[in-house]
What we know:
It is a single chain. The chain has helices at residues 15-29, 41-46, 87-98, 109-120, 145-166, 181-189, 204-216, 240-252, 272-290, 310-313, 325-332, and strands at 2-7, 33-37, 49-51, 102-107, 125-129, 169-174, 194-196, 222-227, 256-260, 296-301, 304-309. The protein has 338 residues and is α/β, with parallel strands linked by helices. It has a 7-stranded mixed sheet, with helices on both faces. Helix 1 crosses helix 9. The longest helix has 22 residues, at 145-166. The model has no long low-confidence stretch (mean pLDDT 97). 6-O-phosphono-beta-D-fructofuranose (F6P) binds at residues 10, 108, 131-133, 175-177, 228, 266.
Amino acid sequence: MRIGILTSGGDCPGINATIRGVSKTAINHYGMEVVGIHSGFQGLLTKDVEVLTEKSLSGLLNLGGTMLGTSREKPFKRGGIMGDVDKPSLILQNIRDLGLDCIVTIGGNGTQKTAAKLAGIGVNVVSVPKTIDNDIWGTDFSFGFDSAVTIATDAIDRLHSTASSHKRVMVIEVMGHKAGWIALYSGMAGGGDVILLPEIPYNIHTIGETILARLKKGKPYSIVVVAEGIQTGTEGKKRAAEYIAQEIEYETGIETRETVLGYIQRGGSPTPFDRNLSTRMGGHATELIAQGQFSRMVALQGSDIASVPLTDVAGKLKLVTEDHDLVVQGRRMGICFG
Ligand code: F6P
């Protein structure tokens, strides 16, 4: 078999480890040929590809980003670099021209949707969930998430120094798009006093009261972790951290500073957990191909790697719920979720 592999959407730690997992398993175990497609679905439209070899697959396990490059090209949306071309038909033609029996798509929610559509027009597709946001339905965790949480937790740990020395409130904004997974996991691991998630509505007076109550208990500083996707009442004008910091200072009179962590969260080496998750997911994706089980996304369910139909995943989001154990235990300990 000759399989194509592409990475689409935002970069994240563990993509290269997944490319390695898919490709080495394909070449060494199944005797398949692997073709790397550059720049996501864009490369499938322009036939920008390279054959992957043992040599090109070296040094990937701990390497950040994606050796294939990525883009946010959506082949089922008209326009973009191809003008008015019928992109799905062009992709079908290019897959035939390149002699590909199957495509492995590594990406987030947008990619899963596109993969499901490609399967719908007859392409053999197997997909792997990739995102620091951890918001892909059907998998308990996506690779990249643990690395992002590790980076964000380290950043929160470091903010404690300024918070306690200056007796300030330090607000940190973390990524996550519409989901609060990074804020929840890094906020809890970093000892946040207030953690704000898009999924849980907050009241700014309650947050102010929590911070003032801490002051009365002899704790003159606080750490506030906010997800980028929370409602701010100033859509498009202010970042979440800026808005919340300004409101807290107004409510409490305590000097408050904000930090936006940004793209640092998705750069650099994956954690050992993400390297192993990527390796397992990559290997299982190739196994699905060998078994002829297409139109599926590899998924972590508990401690096992399974797979789910792409049609079940497409268009859904996995969000934090109020009964998540970290929220329940956090609330019992006095952490304010808004
Ligand atoms: O999905 C990953 C992510 O980093 C989100 O957390 C963030 O909202 C988004 O990508 C940023 O996208 P872009 O790379 O297009 O700025």
